[in-house]
């Protein structure tokens, strides 16, 4: 894990909020639908932050190591310098 600057942390936090909105409310107590089961990779280019969100249910006690619910499933977001968040329309 590396050190992130303030704008990168804010970009990742904004994306976390967007991802949490998409999870079913009924599953909110499950680790699989919590921030603990998410991994964020943040990149920066030309003023924009790009955030890749990986689902990591293998970090949850109810699943355990090596378990994956998706085949290389991830979501990709772009965060503008003004803080506008855009989700990539489909998995690349």
TrEMBL record:
Q: Which domain of life is it from?
A: Bacteria
Q: What is the name listed in the Swiss-Prot or TrEMBL entry for this protein?
A: Uncharacterized protein
- Species of the source: Pseudomyxococcus hansupus
């Amino acid at each position: 894990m590396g050190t992130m600057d303030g704008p990168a942390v804010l970009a990742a936090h904004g994306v976390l909020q967007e991802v949490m909105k998409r999870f079913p409310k009924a599953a909110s107590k499950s680790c699989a639908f919590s921030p603990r089961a998410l991994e964020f990779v943040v990149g920066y280019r030309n003023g924009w932050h790009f955030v890749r969100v990986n689902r990591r249910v293998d970090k949850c006690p109810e699943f355990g190591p090596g378990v994956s619910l998706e085949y290389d499933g991830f979501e990709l977001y772009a965060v503008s310098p003004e803080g506008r968040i855009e989700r990539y329309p489909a998995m690349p």
